[in-house]
């Protein structure tokens, strides 16, 4: 599925964005008394998402009113709905629509992007009709940029939504290769036993029990400038290993490669916009399935990582940080200007902040401020949490350098982030995103299923961070 706007040369109907007043809608004067009387008769007051179709003299439709609620008060609080205009995309009759007015305080860019997001349907296994209402991109906006952001989001959603029967390590590699081919990137993949020769022992240990071989996928895009390296967790299914998950916890584990999906989605957007030419962009994905077999790694095993640090495995269900550690160690060897990891890593992050506000950890105040500000400004919120130094002792067991699953259950997202940070140090700045990668219930512009998180926050923060 490809995001697209309506052809601006086609005939279109006006869509009026209407504020809600104290007792009645605030209608633009050019609509006239007939439209005002009709809106009143229909009970239209401009509530968020409310729609009133305007009839023509011939009995057809000559436009529509769409409620956007009261004028916003000065506040830093986020709106309850990120993409309110997406409701119009879902509810309006088929055809091309154009935004007829520009109310003060309405984020038109976000509205147009939300409309594109609302067009998405995951129809690989079942025919699902997308909305038939198409938006003509407002003249003051840049359609190429909006489509690039939507394309990145679509890619991440597709990858996460696809079940592991069709999205194992083999297929995730093919998705990465397809992206590289679209945008002229170089690809290197290290498979199976070659991981041991190349010194990626923890990626090998986690994935060796699966039917499809574990691998490290390495994409490099042509460009000059600062080094940006994205590392995404690619656990295509997580049984929990020998510390097997209960069925209730295993049902969504096709999404455990959400970190990989998100870094590929971000790379897709950067490449479509040509921004990769102004940086040295690298994408690393350790792709595995955490399965159970005679050669599965075990609780109590001691693994020696690429960096030389030893890791005591106290829970085979804390495997994501193991595969990320080897990939991060490789990335850090080049001392990138910005190193990012994204992973569906801990349940503790969901308990702390819920499914739609992913925490991130960063060792640079300036970088963290840029990311969090961009996230809230562009309706892709993230929330900074600390690399809390006093908890370092929690990840240091008695017989190895590190513990992959500290006992006690406290501060699980922080201790996981501290674990990952041990495999960095040469990068100028490091940020780790503990995402959920899933929309648990349908919302405007965000259907239930796979979801991008943090991609647009990073996209808009990168110019400031890498300048």
Instruction: Give me the Rg, rounded.
Output: 24 Å
What is the SS-derived class?
Answer: alpha/beta
Q: What is the overall pLDDT average?
A: 96
Global geometry? elongated
Major β-sheet annotation = 9 strands, mixed
The CATH homologous superfamily of the largest domain is called: Zn peptidases
Family: Belongs to the peptidase M17 family.
Keywords: Aminopeptidase, Hydrolase, Manganese, Protease
InterPro entries: Leucine_aapep/pepB (IPR011356), Macro_dom-like (IPR043472), Peptidase_M17_C (IPR000819), Peptidase_M17_N_1 (IPR048816)
Domain Cytosol aminopeptidase: 315-322
Task: Note down, in words, how this protein is organized.
This protein has 467 residues and is of the alpha/beta class. It folds into 2 domains: 13-141, 3-Layer(aba) Sandwich (Leucine Aminopeptidase, subunit E, domain 1); 147-465, Aminopeptidase. It has 14 helices and 20 strands. Strands 7, 8, 9, 10, 11, 14, 15, 16 and 18 form a 9-stranded mixed β-sheet that branches. β3 (51-55) and β4 form a beta hairpin. α3 (108-118) packs parallel to α4 and α9 crosses α14. The two termini are 34 Å apart. The mean pLDDT is 96.
């Amino acid at each position: 599925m490809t995001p697209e706007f309506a052809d601006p040369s086609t005939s279109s109907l006006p869509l009026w964005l209407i504020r809600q007043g104290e007792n009645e809608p605030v209608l633009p004067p050019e609509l006239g008394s007939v439209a005002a009387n009709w809106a009143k008769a229909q009970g239209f007051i401009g509530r968020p998402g409310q729609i009133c179709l305007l009839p023509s003299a011939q009995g057809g439709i000559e436009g529509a009113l769409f409620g956007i609620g009261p004028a916003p008060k000065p506040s830093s609080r986020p709106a309850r709905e990120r993409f309110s205009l997406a409701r119009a995309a879902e509810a309006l009759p088929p055809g091309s629509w154009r935004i007829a007015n520009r109310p003060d305080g309405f984020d038109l860019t976000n509205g147009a992007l939300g409309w594109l997001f609302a067009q998405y349907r995951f129809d690989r296994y079942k025919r699902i009709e997308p909305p038939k209402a198409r938006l003509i991109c407002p003249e003051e906006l840049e359609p190429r940029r909006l489509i690039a952001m939507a394309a990145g989001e679509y890619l991440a959603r597709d990858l996460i939504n696809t079940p592991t029967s069709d999205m194992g390590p083999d297929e995730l590699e093919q998705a990465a290769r397809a992206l590289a081919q679209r945008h002229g990137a170089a690809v290197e993949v290290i498979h199976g036993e070659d991981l041991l020769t190349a010194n990626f022992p923890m990626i090998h240990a986690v994935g060796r029990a699966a039917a499809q071989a574990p691998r490290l996928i390495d994409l490099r895009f042509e460009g000059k400038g600062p080094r940006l390296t994205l590392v995404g967790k690619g656990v295509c299914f997580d049984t929990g290993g020998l510390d097997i998950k209960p069925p209730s916890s295993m049902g969504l584990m096709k999404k455990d490669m959400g970190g990989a999906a998100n870094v590929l989605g971000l790379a897709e957007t950067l490449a479509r916009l040509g921004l990769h030419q102004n940086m040295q962009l690298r994408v690393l994905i350790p792709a595995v399935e955490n399965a159970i077999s005679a050669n599965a790694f075990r609780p109590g095993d001691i693994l020696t990582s690429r960096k030389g640090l030893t890791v005591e495995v106290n829970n085979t269900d804390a495997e994501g940080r193991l595969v990320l550690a080897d990939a991060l160690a490789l990335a850090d060897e080049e001392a990138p200007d910005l190193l990012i990891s994204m992973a569906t890593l801990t349940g503790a992050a969901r308990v702390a902040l819920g499914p739609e506000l992913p925490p991130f950890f960063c060792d640079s105040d300036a970088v963290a401020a840029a990311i969090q500000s961009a996230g809230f400004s562009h309706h892709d919120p993230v929330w900074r949490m600390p690399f809390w130094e006093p908890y370092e002792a929690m990840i240091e067991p008695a017989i190895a350098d590190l513990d992959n699953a500290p006992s006690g259950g406290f501060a699980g997202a922080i201790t996981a982030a501290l674990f990952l940070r041990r495999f960095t140090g040469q990068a100028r700045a490091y940020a780790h995103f503990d995402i959920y990668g899933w929309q648990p219930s349908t919302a405007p512009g965000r259907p239930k299923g796979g979801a991008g998180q943090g991609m647009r926050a990073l996209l808009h923060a990168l110019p400031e961070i890498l300048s």
